[in-house]
Design a protein that fits this description.
Shape: globular
Distance between the termini: 21 Å
GO cellular component, one term: plasma membrane
Pfam families: DMT_YdcZ
Order of helices and strands: HHHHHHHHHHHH
Keywords: Membrane, Transmembrane, Transmembrane helix
Protein name: DMT family transporter
Organism: Candidatus Limosilactobacillus merdipullorum
Amino acid sequence: MQFVSILPLAMGIFIASQTAINSRLTSHNHLPLVTSTISFATGSLFLGILTLCSGQGRGIRLGVILDTPWWSWLGGLTAAFALTCNILLFKHLGSVETTLYPVIGQIIMSLVIDQFGWFGSLQQRMTWHKGLGLVFLIAGLLIFINLVNFHRTVQEADAKLSPQLGWQLLGIFAGVALAIQNAVNARLGQAFHSPLHAAFVSFAVSFILLLFFNLIRGTGIICAIRQTLARQSGCEWWIWLGGLLGSSYVGLSSVLVLILGTGQVVILALFGQLVFSALIQQFGWFNSRVIKMSRSQGIGTVIMFVGILLIKF
């Protein structure tokens, strides 16, 4: 049981690594959409194998399609958007911020979905500890981006914020998309009576949408893969593993939630993701850009994590 309890930490490490790996793959082909397509292709293949091996993959009955709300099929679209955003964000913001801003957007949107019971989710009203957690989350964010610093003028704070504001907002919107994905995939999982089957369908839809979009744009995916193979050094075989890591997260989550509960899995996974993102950025792992974490960023991250704990529990 102790071994099972640390698996959510590995899930967080998988997601942090996936973003860095996909960013490195994009540095070779210069096509974020192609990288997303490759990631969802390998992820769909892995989840498809898992679904078949588990005995849960029995196709999609027409009755399920007709009886399921149209928005239940949006998980693939939102997942494709969020993953592509993360690839773009990693280059401009670094590993830690690429993790933090989507997490903030995801948590805020999750609270809104719970408050109003959107997407067929169980309605859960805002409580005092959730409100307090939200305050901690916002305070930690302000400290992280160094806006809360009484030794600086308003003009200096604006100058600090402005260059990255667009990317930071995009990260928050990516998190909003992830929250919607979680909600609609949960509804799809109920329709299929299998969260794993729903995750496979979501990944497959993401792959098909991205493939279609690349074909419309005239992007040569096969040509881009060949160019990447020609440019990469032999020791960078791991740049193709992003989809496998992302789908492993989904597969483990569908199993561990039943054993440990959603709250424990989410918190431990977020903790693993935040810590490993900081290590990637600090030491430049996966051939990424080295960005040393400042004291204010460290303090802000801790305060935000306390906020996450209050919200989730």
